[in-house]
Structures are given as C-alpha cells and as structure tokens.
Amino acid sequence: MTDQDGVYALRYAYRTASVRGEHFYGHDDRATRPWPIDYFVWAICRGDDVTLFDAGFSRAEAARRGRRPYLGTPAELLGRLGFRAEQVSTVVLSHLHYDHTGTLADFPAATVVLQRAEYDFWRSPLAARGGYRHLLNAADLAELERRERRGLLRLVDGDWTLDPAVTGHLVGGHTAGLQVLRVATTPPVVLAADASHFYDNIDCDHPYAVVHELAGMYAAFDRVRALAGEHGVVVPGHDPAVKQRHPALPGQDGLIHPISYF
Ligand SMILES: [Zn+2]
Q1: 1 falls in which pLDDT band (50, 70, 90)?
Q2: Span from the CA of 196 to the centroid of ligand 1 (angstroms)
Q3: Is-contact 45 6, C-beta < 8 A?
Q4: Is the pLDDT of residue 201 over 80?
Q5: How far does residue 1's CA lie from ligand 1's centre (Å)?
Q6: Cβ neighbours around 230 below 10 Å, total
Q7: Could you tell me if 53 and 92 are in contact, meaning their C-beta atoms sit under 8 angstroms apart?
Q8: 242 C-alpha vs ligand 1 centroid, how far in Å?
Q9: Which listed residue, of 27, 158, 170, 226, carries a Cα 20 to 30 Å from 219's Cα?
Q10: 140 C-alpha to ligand 1 centroid (Å)
C-alpha cells in the first residue's frame, strides 16, 4: 500500500453542446436548457496494480462523432498518475455503450470482466435495431470476442467479488446487464457509472433518457444507495459536478480527481 492507493475519476472527454432533454426521461419544461456532460473512467490503484473501471471512447471515435473535446486516453491519464498501461491487470466494464469500451486495445494483457447478460444482449439480433445500433461500437465488441478466445474475458452473473476490497453488482435498468462497483475505501465508494449519469438522477429519483427497463432503473437507484450505505460516496458516471465535489490533484485540473483512499 502507498499513500496514493485509492479510487480516482479520470475525465477523458466532455461535451457542452447538449441539452437537459437528451438526458432525462420524459419531457419537462426544462428540456431545452443547456446540460453539459463529462466522460470519465475510474481507476482503483493499489501498490503497482490498477483495476480500471470502463475504458472510455478512443480519440478516433471522438473525432468520428464530433463535438466531444478529447482530453487524453485512459492510458495517458493513468500515465499522469505514474502508472503504465501494463500495470492494469483488470478492466471491469459497466456496460457496452461506446463511451465505456473504446480503448480496451491499450490494455492487451488485462482480464476484462463483464456481466453475461450485457454481452449476450449486444450479440443478439436486437442490438441491430435502430434504438440500439448507435450505442455500440462494433469494433469494440469484436475486441471483446478476441479476448474471449484468448481466455481474457470473465463473464459474471449478478454479484461477484474481484478481491476483498472490490465487488461488482448487476443492476440493469439503463442496459440489459449494467453493473456498478463498490470499493471498500474509507469511506466506501460506489462507482455508479450509468446507473446514475448525474447526481440529479439518483438524488431526484429521475431516470436517464436511455432506458432498457424503467423499473430496473429505479431498482438500480435503490441498489446503489444500499451499497453506499449511510456514509458511502456515490460517484455518478457523467456529472460535471464530480470535478467540484472531488477536487483535482495539484496540476491535474479537470483530469485526475481523487475520490477516496484506502
Ligand atoms: Zn455512458
């Protein structure tokens, strides 16, 4: 263990040209208000080992989709923390939307952990339908299939344990097999990823606009709260306010935000 052992939010991209109506379920009179969004991955650092939660999108994907200023690949941001990509032993994926899967190839030796329900859904015929197609990067799915053939894909069902400090939990709602991570730091942290894109989702009980199953999304809010407990910290997946609630490391403004330490 070292002083820097802990959980970090790494902000790799952002988008300012978006409105609230893109992000919240159902129409309301605030739908046209500007609503910027940040893109994060999260690093759990212990000694010389890193567990990465999600893999962001690539610089090329940012250019292809446009309007997404790119701050650095997850591997580049880990470099700012003093880690090399080879030190990432495990990449846990919350789900398979393009903004969570795009730089897996930067971590060729890592074991990838994913819920089986998520993997199965995106390999099913439904994934080609109009409401889903743009959310998956087919090249990223192909990369996962390559990992599976190399024995580097661990498919899990429901709750699972990485090690005594890190547990994964299937919540669904936003996607078929969305999972969150709980990390036993002091205080404990729940990395909610897209179980709650913004603080407003979970705090106001207001679902996100992209819904796989609405009741499941509410159940996910409840599960995240229960996993955090009274004193835990919930970290939403895309909220620009993470930067204010968890100030950056010196010299790393807007990029490297420590959440808690072991
Ligand atoms: Zn996302």
Answers
A1: low
A2: 10
A3: yes
A4: yes
A5: 31
A6: 6
A7: yes
A8: 15
A9: 27
A10: 15
